[in-house]
Amino acid sequence: MVNFNRFTLANGLRVLVHEDDTTPMAVLNILYDVGARDEEADKTGFAHLFEHLMFGGSVNIPSYDEPLQRVGGENNAFTSNDITNYYITLPAVNLETAFWLESDRMLSLSFSEKSLETQRNVVCEEFKQRYLNQPYGDVWLKLRPLAYKEHPYQWATIGQDLKQIEDARMEDVKAFFKKHYNPQNAIMVVGGNVKTEDIRRMAEKWFEPIPAGEKYVRNLPKEPLQTEAREVIVKANVPLNAIYMAFKMPARNDESYQSFDLLSDVLSQGQSSRLYNTLLKEQQLFSDVHAYITSSIDEGLFVIEGKLVEGVSVATAETAIWKELEKIKEELITVDELTKVQNKSESIMVFSELNLLDKAMNLAYYELLGDADLLNTEIDRYLAVTAEQIQQAAQQIFVKEQCSILYYLIAKDA
Amino acid sequence: MLNRTLVPDSMQVNDIKFIVPQQQQLDNGIKVYTINAGKQDLVRIEFIFDNVNFDAAKPLQAVAVNHLINNGTATLSAKDIADKVDYYGAFLQTEYGADQSSIKLYSLNKHLKAVLPILKSILDESVFPQQELDIFIQNQKQSLQVSLEKNDFLARKNFAHAIFGNSSYGSNISYADYDALQQQDLLEYYAAAYKPENCTLFIAGKFEQSEFELLNTIFGQEWNNKNQSVKNHFAFSAAPKGDILIERPEAIQSAIRMGTMGINRRHSDFAGFQVLNCLLGGYFGSRLMANIREDKGYTYGIGSAVVSMKDAGYFFIATEVGAEVCGNALSEIEKEITILKTDLVPSQELDLVRNYMLGSMLGSLENAFSHADKFKNIFFSGLDYEYYEKYIETVKTIDSQQIRSLANLYLNTDDFIKVIVGKK
């Protein structure tokens, strides 16, 4: 149970407070309701580049990191296809420094050319380090555009290519800030050794003077139902053949979401899971194999991926995956399997309450989904899922005509 | 009118409280250290065993035992174990480290009674089935194939081997080492290492006397495992130095890893060295990050660290940089070290690092698990809580002259091993 109090400032900023007196620390987490899905097709990677620029100094404070470190604090941020999330942890006694820093960069950035130039380079190096200079590193750069033809989930948060990042201009940066970085598009969670009255006072002092800005109304194209099997073959200098299969699945707020999450657990969570035991241990077709969901706010992906044991043909391996998918479509999972994945979900929920930052991030995310209270009732939705619902979930999406397959093959074999 | 250019008041972290574990003993002598704290009904139980009987000809013996320990026992198959552990929503993790191997159980208290007997079977009657070993060898070799395509992995592996040779800190694992694994070797190592005399228990979370008694009933008797063992001990002569270039013509980034053998936690300079390391590359605002990432944009990240192990310590700097700027990055790293050896650190910067490190220490004591981790650090170094008092005192009081002396003592780049994977 993660308790919280909630209020909204006059400019529309939503504030949640989680009081936890077992720690001397505090967390200030700000979620901006903007992600890579809000980018234009010729300016991809921009939400993430922008996240880097948020550390390049704000209108009244030349350095963001320095004053925070000086009071014993740390910070970081991440960008996904859906959101951009910034967080600070620091000794609770110095919390006001976090309010000062975060409110100033919500007010306005310094928009320094030097910062833009440096961060373009840093992001290009990040692109290389994580996506280009790793075996299989570019899988998601290729799988997304295969699975999505209309929705902006067709590009990765890092962007479609280095060129679009290199071309980012200051006027784009300013326009992006104006459009997305205002109080109405943000959710702030303060947690730890804090009192709600103090947080209200500091929020009114530091954040309420920020102009409300214009409300961004999201209007993204809906991905049409896929009706043909899609495949792409990549040949690269990798040591093992690999298969990536992506199926579209319902959005995060769909009432069947938890059934799909548990379906992925039955297939792939832990060493008792089906794919691990049949494909890796019994048939020894894969040296690793996983099923997981992207948990996207809009229609997401259910992915099955694996690296093949040397000498196993791609056709054999793929057939074996389909056989497992057909089985779970045809036969109900056992009572023990259902209990197992539900117990596991419960454990994960309880263990996540050990970490203050996790609690703050979760509150912000569930508030974005509609109501932070959903966090505390989430386990009930998992426990209510039936074997029939998991079967229906499997029947709904494991269809060849709705599958996008990426074959990632050893160049010399291809 | 709010003046946003004024920095809010702040204070240095003063009061850092450590929770000292309760010490108990099972009937067979196993020491149990418990941090009973936290509001949630959950617990982490770690069985930690010292690594023993190291044989350089069989560098994967201890690794394979740790990995395969839950893959079949006299009474349970690998699948039975996984099914039962997962059924109760528990998590079982095995972890092989430089000096110790561990089995960690994370469980809700309500399922502890059901899960602990499974753990006992794993710890005292594992059989290491040949088929599981074969699968392990096949899949680990494939995983190694993928890792060997990664520049940072190659840099790590070659750096450790250059410094620590064929000891367990530096083994340069090859496919042949996997092929050489024998079931009999695993059984022998298991019986020697996983026995009560070689075991220490660390428990964190909710754990009351009744649970201790349950633990004692299950683990407090005589075990089957009782082979002879000698704890690993490594002695290293002068640290080797020199450049290692592993060329990868298609690399668009080069991985750099450089450093040298250093001191470990038992040395009186260790805390001061950590402050020096923090200034150089130990946090986001460090000199290496400020120069090589935030000013030059050569990399996504660069950092340095001091690592303490039982019989040695080492210092390293690591980064991945654009292949075309690798030479520039190397000279900038060199430059930053030279500045620390010649110029005094400004007090403004040193004060910032003091506060940052104290804040980090406070933040690293978040829950019962982290208090247990802090205790394990000193326990396995043969130290007590006075170590942390001294550490905090050093962070608060070390001065610029001392930092410069430490830089001259420990950061001699001519004596470094420098590994570059990619293009120089």
Describe the structure.
The complex is a heterodimer of chains A (414) and B (424). By secondary structure, chain A is of the alpha+beta class. Helices cover 42% and strands 19% of the residues of chain A. Chain A is built from 15 helices and eleven strands. In chain A, the strands form two sheets. A six-stranded mixed β-sheet of chain A has the order 1-2-6-3-5-4, sandwiched between helices. In chain A, strands 7-11-8-10-9 form a five-stranded mixed β-sheet, with helices on both faces. In chain A, a hairpin with a 6-residue loop joins strand 9 and strand 10 (300-308). In chain A, helix 1 packs across helix 4 and helix 11 (314-330) packs across helix 15. The longest helix of chain A has 20 residues, at 113-132. Chain B is α+β, with helices and mostly antiparallel strands and 424 residues long. Chain B contains 15 helices and eleven strands. In chain B, the strands form two sheets. Chain B has a six-stranded mixed β-sheet with strand order 1-2-6-3-5-4, sandwiched between helices. A five-stranded mixed β-sheet of chain B has the order 7-11-8-10-9, sandwiched between helices. The mean pLDDT of chain B is 96. Chains A and B meet through helix 2, strand 5, helix 3, helix 4 and helix 10 of A and helix 2, strand 5, helix 4, helix 10 and strand 10 of B.
For the biggest sheet of chain A, the summary is: 6 strands, mixed
User: From N to C, what is the helix and strand string of chain A?
Assistant: EEEHHEEHHHHHEHEEHHEEHHHHHE
Q: What would you report as the Rg of chain A, rounded to the nearest angstrom?
A: 23 Å
End-to-end separation of chain A: 53 Å
**Continuous helix count of chain A:** 15
- Strand order, largest beta sheet of chain B: 1-2-6-3-5-4
E-strand count of chain A: 11
Class by helix and strand content of chain A? alpha+beta
Element order, helices and strands of chain B?
Answer: EEEHHEEHHHHHEHEEHHEEHHHHHE
- How much helix, percentage-wise, in residues of chain A? 40-55%
Q: Look at the structure and give the mean pLDDT of chain B.
A: 96
Mean pLDDT of chain A: 96
Poorly predicted regions of chain A are none
Q: Helix/strand-derived class of chain B?
A: alpha+beta
Biggest protein-protein contact in the assembly: A-B, 82 and 75 residues
What sort of overall outline of chain B do the alpha carbons produce when their principal axes are compared? globular
Give a count of the beta strands of chain B, DSSP E runs of length 2 or more.
11
Strand content of chain B: 15-25%
